[in-house]
């Protein structure tokens, strides 16, 4: 999962709602549409506690949305929320992200790293902790940095990676003064180099021998996790129960984990509130599920922790579909979507002020955020109808037709995900107003990405994009023409060039933000992904669990999670 956004389809990890539909009439006023994000949306709410004051031992039961077949989260099929959270507990991350998205070396692995210009080229020197080892006893060295870089640089297309961003700019990686120093030279500058080998950017490191050739990279972690390198190691993988239990690794060289075990339980999001109420799980991501929020709030042993992060709910329109190939049709559907009404409905009952998100790359509380949507961000059924007319889709009764075919679209959603069901019903009404039929098709949650979205077997679909602190490079896998998670199948050289320029502009942060916004404006015109609203980070968690909850822009420090005394 390189430096990237990654897609999340399911409740706890997305904005979900079981609320009744709201009428899809006029949109909110301009003032409402321009509401600012809630104050403190990058705040941290994890019951931060000195680990020394926590109990030693215990098991945390953690609900996740999907059980993986691919546990290499750098491989395209592994880039999903459930597998990612499991693997972050098991694999090295060289960095920790603070509440403002600033990156700090994770001293368990990285003593320090620095970037300098040498003979006109950017050179990053990594100093690894000599104590760091893989679970098989092999030291973590410059060879691991080199092998991961080679796998992700995009030169060998046999590696099935979802993004090459940043790594594709590396010219070479060489051994420094010893095995624990890696010297990385870039062919062109990469501003977000701290996103490399970084869990906050969804890019933990894997052992060199398991990523050194395409076949091994693609298959070594399928249905198994052979080697790890973190405070926890694999205890048990139960495919029938869809659980993964990780246990404290006695060979861990860092701060001793407070917990004995973490058991990750993959389950339908609709089952999570009940499992939490029954004490089967200690933590789940509420996302925007008002029903789950209400139910979890009543659990006497639990509490709700809220923050915000770089995550947003969106609709993806598949340009690979014959009926959506014409950008005018996609642009028309953008304007036929009442985003403000959807935001109000999805977020009702959560204590979260709804407002539309008008930028693909930056959220409202980030520096540089601006609305680049133009007319495509405005709810305007009349203008949408005009565009459909121009595209040759003429009204015939209540439905538009072209060449004898109806403009009927498949809206694929994961089952047991109330927000998606809600959105499907609302969009059905909205699109009817412009003569477009929407056929809502619920599919099994575990099949949603693997069998429908990634293969392109859909017309329109909703899911949440979980972001990173790196707005340009962190979005390349979704918005670049050949991005591994470009499910919309749209792109342009202009957008690619702007994303690359912003990612490379290490010397001019203000210029990089300008290029990021120019890239966003181009993404609006391509009309592949329609941002709806910033997704709140809302966690239901047992009261006595500390150092975990609503993370904002930070990452989980797994060894610090524990129960209060």
TrEMBL record:
InterPro entries in alphabetical order: Peptide/Ni-bd, SBP_5, SBP_5_dom
The keyword Signal is assigned to this record: yes
Sorted UniProt keywords: Signal
Record has Signal as a keyword: yes
PROSITE patterns (UniProt xref): PROKAR_LIPOPROTEIN (PS51257)
Name of the protein in its database record: ABC transporter family substrate-binding protein
Pfam families tied to this protein: SBP_bac_5
Signal sequence segment: 1-22
Origin superkingdom: Bacteria
Location of the Solute-binding protein family domain: 116-486
């Amino acid at each position: 999962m390189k430096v990237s956004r990654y897609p999340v389809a399911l409740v706890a990890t997305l904005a979900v709602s079981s609320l009744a539909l709201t009428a899809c009439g006029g949109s909110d006023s301009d003032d409402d549409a321009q509401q600012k994000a809630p104050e403190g949306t990058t705040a941290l709410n994890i019951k931060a506690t000195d680990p020394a004051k926590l109990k030693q031992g215990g098991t945390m039961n953690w609900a996740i949305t999907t059980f993986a077949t691919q546990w290499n989260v750098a491989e395209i099929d592994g880039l999903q929320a459930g597998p990612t959270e499991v693997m972050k507990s098991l694999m090295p991350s060289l960095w920790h992200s603070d509440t403002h998205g600033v990156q700090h070396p994770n001293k368990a692995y990285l003593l320090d790293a620095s970037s300098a210009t040498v003979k006109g080229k950017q050179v990053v020197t990594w100093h690894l902790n000599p104590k760091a080892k893989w679970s098989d006893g092999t030291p973590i060295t410059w060879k691991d940095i080199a092998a991961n870089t080679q796998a992700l640089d995009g030169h060998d297309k046999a590696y099935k990676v979802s993004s090459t961003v940043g790594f594709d700019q590396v010219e070479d990686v060489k051994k420094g003064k010893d095995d624990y120093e890696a010297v990385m030279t870039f062919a062109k500058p990469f501003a977000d180099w701290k996103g490399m080998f970084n869990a906050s950017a969804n890019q933990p490191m894997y052992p060199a021998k398991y990523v050194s050739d395409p076949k091994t990279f693609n298959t070594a972690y399928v249905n198994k996790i052979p080697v790890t390198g973190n405070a926890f190691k694999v205890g048990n993988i139960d495919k029938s129960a869809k659980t993964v239990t990780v246990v404290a690794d006695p060979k861990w060289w860092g701060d001793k984990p407070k917990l004995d075990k973490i058991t990750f339980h993959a389950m339908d999001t609709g089952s999570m509130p009940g499992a939490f109420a029954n004490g089967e799980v200690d933590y789940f991501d509420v996302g925007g599920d008002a029903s789950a929020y209400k139910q979890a709030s009543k659990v006497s042993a639990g509490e709700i922790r809220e923050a915000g992060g770089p995550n947003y709910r969106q609709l993806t329109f598949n340009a690979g579909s014959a009926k959506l190939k014409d950008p005018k049709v996609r642009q028309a559907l953008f304007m036929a979507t009442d985003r403000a009404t959807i935001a109000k409905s999805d977020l009702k009952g959560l204590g979260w002020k709804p407002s539309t998100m008008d930028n693909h790359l930056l959220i409202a509380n980030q520096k540089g955020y601006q609305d680049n949507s133009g007319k495509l961000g405005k709810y305007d059924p009349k203008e949408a109808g005009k565009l459909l007319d121009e595209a040759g889709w003429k009204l015939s009764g209540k439905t538009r037709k072209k060449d004898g075919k109806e403009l009927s679209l498949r809206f694929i959603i994961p089952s047991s995900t109330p927000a998606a069901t809600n959105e499907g019903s609302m969009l059905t009404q909205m699109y009817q107003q412009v003569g477009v039929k929407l056929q809502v098709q619920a599919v099994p949650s575990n099949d949603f990405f693997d069998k429908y979205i990634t293969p392109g077997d859909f017309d329109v679909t909703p899911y949440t994009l979980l972001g990173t602190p790196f707005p340009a490079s962190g979005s390349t896998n979704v918005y670049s023409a050949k991005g591994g998670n470009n499910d919309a199948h749209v792109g342009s050289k202009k957008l690619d060039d702007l994303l690359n320029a912003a990612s490379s502009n290490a010397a001019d942060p203000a210029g990089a933000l300008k290029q990021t916004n120019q890239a966003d404006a181009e993404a609006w015109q391509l009309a592949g992904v329609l941002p709806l609203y910033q997704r709140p980070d809302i966690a239901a968690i047992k009261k006595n669990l500390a150092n975990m909850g609503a993370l904002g822009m930070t990452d989980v420090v797994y060894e610090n999670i524990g129960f209060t005394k």
